[in-house]
Amino acid sequence: MDSLLNKYSSRLNTNYVPSDEEVIEIQGALSEPVSKLKCLDDEIKQLKKLIDERGKERRTLSDKIGPYQRLISPIRRLPVDLLQEIFIRCLPSDHCPPMHASYPPLSLTRVCSGWRSIALTTPRLWASIHITVPDSLAPFVPAHTAQVNNSVASAHALGIVTQRASATKEWLERSGACRLDISLHSWGSIDSSLGGIAIASFFPFSNRWRSLKLTCADISSKTIADLLAADLPILKSFALSGEVNDFGDTTSLFLWRTSGLMKAHQLQEVSFSQLREDLTTFPLRWSQLTTLTLQYVHWNISHSPIFENTFRALGQCSSLLKCRLEFPPPNSGDVAVSEGLETVCLPRLQSLAISDGSADISPYLSTLDLPSLQEFEFFGTIQWSQLNTRTSLHSILSRTSNTLRRFTTDPKFFSKEDFGNYLRLCPLLKSLHLLRSKIDNTPYGLPPATPHIDNEFLKLLSNTDGVEHGFCPELEVFECWSGAGFSDAAMLEFIIHKQTQVTPGVAKLKRFAVHFNRRCAVEINEMTKTFVEDGLKLDVMHLEPRLPLSALDGLPLPQFPPFFVP
């Protein structure tokens, strides 16, 4: 048979058409293997039938013994207090839990009646909450409605917010006497009064607020601003991101300057975003602040000494551990600097983030005395004509070289030479994060004007020619989300050298992450597999650049499910 079939093997996978005699000859040669194939199919069918029968028997037996196995499950024997602690550990650690059935603590009430009873009687589970308020019309328009009707949408939104307000009150009542952590997101709400309804639901619990984070219109938070310091005896953290429009609305200016909340006795952490006031005029207990975040919105700042006032206020923050300052662009020209600036000593500050608003604030940075600084983040406003402009980084890095461990910036702020010199000032740096500035005006998808982070940069970072010729020998974490101009081959060489070198003082990588705005040229996964198995966290992504003309231009976008389901 095989010899006969081999006769026609050269005809396989061609357009050859056999004659009638050849068809009969091939059919005769195939009769035996076709018969054997049928026998195999019959045998497989019998085996599948047997498997189905055994599977049915197993399911029947499993259904019979399953309840008894669950009865003796170890988790049933856990003491209630231990189960409560496990439930508490299920809560998110970096934000307040949302009011959603798929997330704890609500999800813990949907497992069984026993867990529900334990969860509902565990106050600490209900001592934090994240509340959302509708921010668009679409989710509240009935499906059959042809056009968006504001009154219909508002009515739907009002009903949902009212329902959630009732649920919020019930939620917090379960917290007993626990200190409360609350966050509210009402950004861009279709009706500013909706935020007020949500706030009213947790307002009666103000004497137990420990942390409060508001993202809402100023008018919604007026009731909170009217509180007295005595109403907030344990408030430790307050964050406000106010809603600012482009129409010069000044109805709520200076609202927080006179608020009793600013005088809360335990207040240590303050964060203001989209601020339209000078925070330095607030009656805060500056000496007890440990965290300060200040993000001015440039179009409503009318006071001129914003830089000087801010740094003067910093001088009062002797307990500060973490600070973020985002300045607006100056109203006109250069920043006016007073003579005889005093030194600002922040002995405990560990983390500092600054966005200079394209202004030269080096005179103020030079006044900073930061003996404990470990993390530094610096961003500015990029203009194409200013890519090589020197910044005021040197004054900070040169004085923190023995303590700095983490540096974050956008490499397009500096010339290649300057950036290398700055890194040489950080011999003990362990983490380097190169990010795209959120105030970068460069269109997405375009490469940087100057290839700051190239093959030579990686070679210096790997200290291939010795520590004395490179920089950051103790680097363990490298992330590059902006300006990656090195090749895949150079990247692979960098990783291999860092992970295999035995040079004293040169550390191995713990994490390497980079996103390219180009196609992959060299696949590195297989060649770095051993390093990943040894603990290296590797995240390399190549983004396909969009062509100037796409065959999909003009077609409707895919329909994604709504983010909010009422």
Can you characterise this structure?
There is one protein chain. 26% of the residues are buried. The longest helix has 52 residues, at 20-71. The strands form 2 sheets. This protein has a 14-stranded parallel β-sheet with strand order 1-2-3-4-5-6-7-9-11-12-13-14-15-16, with helices on one face. Strands 8-10 form a two-stranded parallel ribbon. Strand 15, helix 14 and strand 16 form a beta-alpha-beta unit. The protein has helices at 2-6, 20-71, 80-89, 113-120, 150-173, 192-202, 222-225, 306-314, 362-365, 394-397, 416-424, 455-462, 488-500, 529-533; strands at residues 128-132, 180-185, 209-216, 237-242, 269-275, 291-296, 322-326, 344-345, 351-355, 368-369, 375-379, 406-409, 431-434, 477-480, 511-516, 537-542. Mean pLDDT is 82; it is low at 143-147, 244-254, 299-303, 382-389, 443-450 and 559-566. Helices cover 29% and strands 14% of the residues. Helix 5 (150-173) packs parallel to helix 6 (192-202). With 566 residues, it is α/β, with parallel strands linked by helices. The N and C termini lie far apart (70 Å). It is built from 14 helices and 16 strands. Among the domains are: 16-72; 406-546, no CATH class.
Topology at a glance:
Layout: H1 2-6, H2 20-71, H3 80-89, H4 113-120, E1 128-132, H5 150-173, E2 180-185, H6 192-202, E3 209-216, H7 222-225, E4 237-242, E5 269-275, E6 291-296, H8 306-314, E7 322-326, E8 344-345, E9 351-355, H9 362-365, E10 368-369, E11 375-379, H10 394-397, E12 406-409, H11 416-424, E13 431-434, H12 455-462, E14 477-480, H13 488-500, E15 511-516, H14 529-533, E16 537-542
Parallel strand pairs: 1-2, 2-3, 3-4, 4-5, 5-6, 6-7, 7-9, 8-10, 9-11, 11-12, 12-13, 13-14, 14-15, 15-16
Helix pairs in contact: 5-6, 12-13
